[in-house]
Amino acid sequence: MKNALLFASVAVESTLFHFDKEFSYSVPENLVPDVRPGVKVLVPFGASNRKICGFVLSVFEKRQTQAGEKIKFILDVNSKNFALSDEFLSLVKWMKSRYYCTFFDAVRVVAFADKASFKNQKMDKILKPNLSSEEKKMTEKQKIVFKLLKKEKNLTIKNILYSTGFTSSVVYLMIKKGMILCEAPGPKEILSAAKVSNESGAPWSVVLTSAQQEVFANIVRDLDEKKLVSLLYGVTGSGKTLVFLELIKEILNRGRTAILMVPEIALTSQLMGVFCKEFKSQVAILNSSLSRKERLRNWQRIKNGEAKIVVGTRSAVFAPLKKIGLIIMDEEHETSYKSESTPRYHAREVAIFRCKYHCALLLLASATPSVESFFMAKNGRYGFSKLEQRYKNVPLPTVSIVDMTCEESADDAGVFSKKLVDAIKINSKAKKQSIILLNRRGYSTFVVCPSCKNVAVCKNCSISMSYHAANNRLMCHYCSCSKELSDECLYCHKSQVHCMGVGTQKVESELRKLAPDVRILRIDSDSTAEKSLLAKKIKSFKNGDYDVLVGTQMVAKGLDFPRVTLVGIISVDSMLYSGDFRSYERTFDIITQVVGRSGRGACEGRAIIQTLTPENPIIKFAADQNYEAFYHSEIQMREAMLYPPFARICVVGFLASSEKRALDASRLFCKMLVYEAKESYKDLPLRVLGPSPACILKVNKKYRYKIIIKFRDCERFRSLMSYLKLSFAKAQKGVSVFIDTSPNSIP
Fold first, then answer.
1. Phi, psi of 275 (to 5 degrees)
2. Which of 638, 657, 686 is the last residue of a domain?
3. Structure letter (DSSP) for residue 10
4. What is the pLDDT of residue 112?
5. Domain check: are 262 and 351 in the same one?
6. The pLDDT value given to residue 123
7. What pLDDT score was predicted for residue 264?
8. Is residue 473 within 8 Å of residue 165, measured between CB atoms?
9. Minimal CA–CA distance to 346: which of 742, 670, 66, 21?
10. Which residues, listed in sequence order, are joined to residue 402 by a DSSP beta bridge?
11. Residue 204 CA to its chain's centroid (Å)
C-alpha cells in the first residue's frame, strides 16, 4: 500500500462496559478534511452494521492493514456544530477510568447531550388538547388525561403524571398520535437575566468590609501562588457573594474566565440578577431547566468567547470556557453536586481536574463545609479563609429548642408546638415573614390499618407509600408508583385506614387551621413540578406576597430573604437518626443553613427547633451555629471508625430481578475481589464489608445488595476495580453492577 490510510479511534454509543473500547474506523477520502479529534461521526456498528453515533477520540495513520482484517468506514461527520476540545477529550478518558463508565457515558455528560432525546424532556409543557381528535377513539386513560387538560391550563407532563398516577408512556403516545399538543418551555431565567442586564444602568458599587477585604486578599494570594484548592468558610449571611464578585472582577482583569456553581436551580436565578447587573452580557447560565435549544445557544456563546462567566448548577462544571482562572463551588457541602446516575461523578473532582489543566483555582465556599474539605484546609492541603461575622455585623439568630415530649397537651398538639404557632402569628401581624422546614414531602409518611396493623407498601419497592392530599393518592417516593387512597385495607378489607406521620402538605394544612389569616406558600418537589415554578414561587415570597414559607431542604440553601425573621424546624429527629455515617453532618448542615435564613435584613432573627431529643449535642452545636465544635466532635468519630477523610468509601451495588440472583452476584464479586486482592494487589490496604442487603431491599422491581470497601484512592485501586467489573460482567449475566467511589450515603 503506497499511501497511508487515515483511521479514527471512535467512542460509540450503546456499548456496555465490558466491551467498551476505542473502535477503529477508516476515514473515507472525502471526509479526511473534516475528521479530527472531538468531532461527532456516524458509524456502522456490530454484525448488523447498524448506524450509530460516535465521537472521534484520536486519529492515526496506517501504512498497511493485515490480511483478512475487516475495515469499516466512517459514514458521515458533523464537524461544524460541535466538537470536543483536547481538554474535554482528556476529561472523557479520565472519567472512564475514575467512574467505571463507558467512553460515551462520559462524552454524553461532557457534551451536554443528556437531554438530546425527546423522551428525556420530562418537564415539557402540554398546551391544550387537540380538539380535532375524537374522544371516542381514546382509551380510558387517554380520556382522563384529555379531560384533565380541558379543565386545567399550562400543565406539564409531570403535573399530569402526579394527578393521574399514569406512566409517561400514556402521555407520550397521545402526543405522538396528535391527541394533545406539546411544546418545550422557554428559559424564564435567561429572559429575566437579559432584561436585568439591559436595564441595569451602572454596575453595583461593591464595598467590602475589612474582613471581606482580608479574605479577598488571601484568595488572590492563593491564585498567585498557584494553589489548586482553597476553602472559604463563612457564617450564614457573611457576604460571601460580594467576595465572589470582586474575585471574578480580578479574574476578568487578568484576561481569564470563571465558573460559579450553586446547588439549586433557584439560586441561579437569584445570582443572575446580581451578576448581570455587574457583568452585563458576559454572563451565561447553564442548568437542567433550560430547553435543548437554549442550552445549545448558551453553549455556543460560551464556546465562542461571548460569555466569560458561567453561573449554573452541577453541569456548569463542564462549561466549554477557555483560559479558566477560577471555579467557585458555593455551598460546597451540598449532596446535589454528586451525580447519582452513570457516570457517578462529583463536580468537585471534575473541577479539580479542570483547574489542574488550566492552572486555575477551585474555591470551595460554605457556612457548613464538608468534613473532608475542612480537614484538608485545617491540615494545610487547601488554602483557608474565614468570615466569622455577618455582613455589617448583623447578629446571628437567637435559637430556642422545644422538647416535644414535654410540650403542653402533647397528645393533641399535632405538628406544631404552641411556642412556634404563637411566634408565627406575632411575626405575621408585624408584617414579617417566617420559614417552616420539614424535610419530608407529602401529607402522611405511611398508611396503616388499625385492624390488621398492615402498612400500605409499594408493589415495586420494599417501602411504605406516602399519602399526598393534593391528589388524594398513595405515592412511592422511589419509583413514583401511585394509586388512589381508599378507606378499605388492601389486606383485611376492613375500612377506616389511618394516615400516620407528617409531610409538608400536612404542615401546610394544619397551619392553615391554626392560623387562618396567615398567607402560606409551600415549596417542595410536588408543588414545583415545573422547574421554572420554583424560581417564580421564591420571587413571590421575596416580594412579600406570603407570610410563611413551608418547605423541604430546598428552602435552606443559600436563599436571601430580608423580611424573614423567624425560622421553625419540625421533626429534626428523623434526619438525625437515619443510620448513615453522614447523618449527623447532614442534620447539622440543614439546621445551620435554614436557621441562617433568619435575620438577614434590618431586624434581628430567631429560630425555634422542635425535637424529641433536645439533649443531642448536634442540635446544640447547630443552634449555636458552632461549626468548629461540631467538626471536632465529628472528626473523632470518623477517625475511630475509619470513615472519610481517613479512608475513601466505595459502594459496589448489585441489582437483579430476584433477591437470590442479587445475593449470589454480590457473593461472586466479593469472592473475586478477595482472590485478586490476595494474589495481585497485596500492597493495597482494603477493608471489605458485606455483602449485605441495601437499606431498601427492593426498588422499582429490582432487588439490591451491596459491598462496602474502605480504601485509599490510587491508580492501583482503580485498576483493580475496573478489572473486577469487566470480569464480573463477562461471568454474570442478568445482574447490573455499579461502582460508586464517592457516595453521598451508604444505600
1. -75, -35
2. 638
3. E
4. 67
5. yes
6. 46
7. 82
8. yes
9. 742
10. 610
11. 31
Closest CA to 451 of 412, 397, 498, 403: 498
Whole domain around residue 681: which residue ranges? Answer: 648-740
Length of the chain: 747
Q: Are residues 618 and 657 located together in one domain of the fold?
A: no
Residues 6+ apart with CB under 8 A from 198: none
DSSP string covering 664-727: HHHHHHHHHHHHHHHHT-TTS--EEEEEEEEEEEEETTEEEEEEEEEE--SHHHHHHHHHHHHH
Contact between 593 and 557 under an 8 Å Cβ cutoff? The reply is: yes
Rounded-to-integer distance, Cα 620 and Cα 616, Å: 7
Residue 104 has φ and ψ, to the nearest 5°, of: -75, -30
DSSP 294: H
90 and 175 together in one domain: no
Q: Grid coordinates standing for 452?
A: 390488621
| DSSP 8-state assignment for residue 156 | B
**Strand (E) or helix (H) holding 420:** helix 418-429
- Going from the C-alpha of 98 to that of each of 341, 342, 588, the distances in angstroms are 14, 12, 30
DSSP 368: S
The candidate with the shortest Cα–Cα distance to 383, out of 226, 603, 253, 258, is: 226
The count of domains in the chain is 5
Asked if omega into 343 is within 30° of 0 (cis), the reply is yes
Asked whether residue 371 is assigned to any structural domain, the reply reads yes
Q: How far from each other are the two terminal CA atoms of the chain, in whole angstroms?
A: 58
**Residue in the structure block whose three cell numbers are 439533649:** 615
Specify if 582 maps to a domain: yes
**Amino acid sitting at position 265:** I
Q: Kindly report, residue by residue over 289-315, the tens digit of the pLDDT.
A: 777 777 788 888 998 999 999 999 999
Pair 368, 411 in one domain:
no
User: Grid coordinates standing for 418?
Assistant: 404552641
Minimal CA–CA distance to 599: which of 435, 425, 437, 419? 435
Does any domain span residue 257? yes
Whether residue 548 is contained in a domain is answered as yes
Backbone dihedral angles phi then psi of residue 63, each to the nearest 5 degrees: -75, -30
H-run or E-run covering 557: none
CATH number where 676 lies? 3.30.70.360
State how far the Cα of 623 lies from the Cα of 629, in Å rounded to an integer: 12
Specify whether the CB–CB gap between 259 and 321 falls below 8 A: yes
Whole-angstrom distance, CA of residue 709 vs CA of residue 647: 10
At 144 the pLDDT is 85
Last residue of a domain, one of 183, 200, 230: 183
The strand pairing partners of 437, in sequence order, are 551, 569
Whether residue 147 is found in the same domain as residue 200: no
Please tell me the distance from the alpha carbon of residue 477 to that of residue 461, in angstroms, as a whole number.
10
In this structure, what DSSP letter does residue 341 have? S
Sign of CA dihedral 288, 289, 292, 296: negative
Q: CB neighbours of 168 closer than 8 A, spacing ≥ 6?
A: 119, 122, 157, 161
Interatomic CA distance for residues 589 and 2, integer angstroms: 68
Distances (CA, A) of 556 to 245, 313, 494, 635: 22, 16, 42, 24
Low-confidence residues of the chain: pLDDT under 50: 1-2, 113-123, 185-201, 409-412
pLDDT of residue 117: 34
CATH code assigned at 389:
3.40.50.300
> Do 287 and 255 fall into the same domain?
yes
Q: Mind giving me the DSSP string for 192-249?
A: HHHHHHHH--SPP-----HHHHHHHHHHHHHHHTT-SEEEEEE-TTS-HHHHHHHHHH
Reply yes or no: is the peptide bond before residue 617 cis, omega within 30 of 0: no
Nearest-angstrom CA–CA distance, 336 and 156: 23
Other C-beta atoms lying within 10 Å of the C-beta of residue 204: 13
Q: Are 358 and 228 in contact (CB under 8 A)?
A: no
Do 387 and 527 share a domain, yes or no?
no
Return the amino acid letter for 668: L
Claim to verify: residue 403 and residue 431 sit in the same structural domain:
yes
C-alpha cell at 532: 421554572
Q: Give dist(CA 219, CA 245) in Å, integer.
A: 13
